[in-house]
Amino acid sequence: MAQPKQTPATVYLVGAGPGDPGLVTLRGVECLRRAEVVLYDYLVNPAVLEHAPTGAELVCLGRHGDGRIMPPEEVSQRMIRSASDGRTVVRLKGGDPAVFARGAEEATALAEAGIPFEIVPGITAALAVGSYAGIPLTHRELASAVTLITGQEDADKTDSGVDFSALAAMRGTLVFYMGVTTVRHWTDALIAAGKPADVPAAIVRRCSLADQTTIYCTLGSLAEQIEAARVRPPALAIIGPVVSLGPTLDWFSRRPLFGTRVLVTRPRDQAAALAGPLAEMGADVLRQPVIEIGPPDDLAAVDAAISRLGEFDWIVFSSANGVERLLGRLLAGAGDLRALGGVKIAAIGPATVERLAGYHLKCDLHPAEYRAEALAAALTPQAAGKRFLLARASRGREVLAEQLTTAGGHVEQVVVYSSTDVTAAEPDVAEAMSQGRIDWVTVTSSAIARSLVALFGEQLRACRLASISPITSQTLQELGHNAAVEAEEYTSAGVVEAIAQAAKSC
Ligand code: SAH
Q1: What mean pLDDT is reported for the chain?
Q2: Is the Cβ–Cβ distance between 13 and 106 less than 8 Å?
Q3: Whether residue 153 sits in one domain with residue 84
Q4: Sheet with 200-205, edge to edge strand ranges
Q5: Does residue 279 have a pLDDT over 90?
Q6: pTM of the model
Q7: Domain check: are 132 and 60 in the same one?
Q8: Domain total of the chain
Q9: CA gap 182, 292 in Å, rounded
Q10: Do residues 26 and 85 share a domain?
Q11: CA nearest 365: which of 386, 344, 381?
Q12: Half-sphere exposure of 397 (CA within 13 A, CB side)
């Protein structure tokens, strides 16, 4: 008997936006979250792919000048095949799927094959220029119309879809997509058709990304400027009086850390507290975790400590990881938070306090200065005869245990997570580092300092190191490296602030 035919799954043609991963729509994210197959163009920022579930098949369709590009028919066939097999497909395209993106052709192929589809709009590159380069496409006094044009049409072609006379006569804004390599062609054609060569023009490359660049010129000098600056795609050319507003309205490249590349070295799931604010200030943030956090070697010891939590007077957390690992383990098992009912809680720094608050736990003690010595000093007056449980990493400082013991406390330490060095850099980071393209490196603990120096060695001399605290700076110094700045408050926010202050005084 023939197998009943599968009901085909839906294909979502989704616009990923121009580059900034924040510019994908909520609907786009919803679709990505349910995707089983994602077919994406190389212009799509990989950060957008992170909305897809782990395990989804991610297929890059190739990039120009770099290996094979999947031909359009093959893309359509692949979508149809996956959807027919019952797998939900997201076809992710840069910008908007219907602006110079063959979205209609792909949707037609789906319609003909009887595959259900949905088209989710995206922010097209021209609109991104309107906001991120401060060149509004329309303006009450300067432009009442806007035209989006492809630069890939042959200007000499008799059946060209581009009517240069009409464009030359239009009093509005012209935006050329894919016009870098053909710039002489279309600028000559526009001028020959009567567009004045002195109309303001701009070329905006990698709009909405941390390395966005804008060159201001005129229609007549566009080709020369593009060639002189060796502009590579993706770039848009904007022609019209609205361009004159760019220097005033370009908020994006005026942010304090714009043009600064910062390497964040924290473990991956803790990088956001640094990467987020740095990116918001305009920095181009690269991530290279130099240590990894994982489960401890001896989980039985953690469980044993958990079963005896009520016996302790104090639990001391020296990091947010410690909180997560101990309480996560407690709640994953048979226990609940009442196990901590009679126990006091101490923490070293604000990130730890915040993580405890996430479990609705208030801290009984945390020092004004975020270091082990300060916590020990605050605890020692009441330590005699008390039982302390220190939830700690597989490596770390002993100062707290030593001082509490000296003060007459009974100290037990339990390793709740392991911290190991990363021994190979990500290829893009290794390349940026070897080319001296990294301006700042964040160093947020002594363990990170050691692993960082082991990973990059002498190459670090081309970067400025931003240290979180005097202890970390001292470790760096012992390793033969000096911190260029040190946080005043020993937190992620303090590190960001120190970099911002240094950048301001440059
Ligand atoms: N569907 C896309 C356009 C794809 S065609 C959209 O709606 O934006 C590719 C062209 O788009 C590039 O050659 C370039 O001209 C333009 N482009 C895409 N992203 C860009 C960006 N971030 N900055 C400048 N131009 C961009």
Answers
A1: 93
A2: yes
A3: no
A4: 146-150, 173-177, 235-239, 200-205, 213-218
A5: yes
A6: 0.82
A7: no
A8: 4
A9: 48
A10: yes
A11: 344
A12: 17
Mutate to test the pocket of ligand 1, among 40, 100, 153 (most ligand atoms within 8 A of CB): 100
Do 491 and 431 lie in one domain? The reply is yes
In whole angstroms, what is the distance from residue 149 CA to residue 61 CA? 24
Residue 287 — very low, low, confident or very high, per pLDDT cuts 50/70/90?
very high
Mean pLDDT of 454-459: 96
Above 70 in pLDDT, residue 155?
no
Calculate how far, in angstroms, residue 106's C-alpha sits from the geometric centre of ligand 1. Answer: 18
Rounded Cα distance, 48 and 28, in Å: 10
d(CA 460, ligand 1 centre) in Å: 35
Per-residue pLDDT, averaged over 236-248, amounts to 97
Alpha carbons 467 and 483: distance in angstroms, whole number: 6
Domain encompassing residue 209: 127-252
| C-alpha to C-alpha distance for 376 and 463, rounded to whole angstroms | 35
- Read off the CATH number of the domain in which 199 is found: 3.30.950.10
Asked, for residue 137, whether it belongs to a domain, the answer is: yes
CATH of the domain at 108: 3.40.1010.10
pLDDT, residue 257, reads 96
- What contacts 336, CB < 8 A, 6 or more positions away? 330
- Which atom of ligand 1 is the closest one to the Cα of 176? 15
Residue 270: pLDDT above 60?
Answer: yes
Question: Does residue 374 form part of some domain?
Answer: yes
Q: Quote the ligand 1 centre to 177 CA distance (angstroms).
A: 6
Residue 69 confidence (pLDDT): 81
pLDDT tens-digit readout, 179-228: 999 999 999 999 999 999 999 999 999 999 999 999 999 999 999 999 99
Q: What residues line ligand 1, using a CB cutoff of 6 Å?
A: 18-19, 43, 93-96, 99-101, 124-125, 177-178, 204-208, 233-236
**Stretch (H or E) spanning 38:** strand 37-40
Burial class, 368, CB count within 10 angstroms (exposed 0-12 / middle 13-18 / buried 19+): exposed
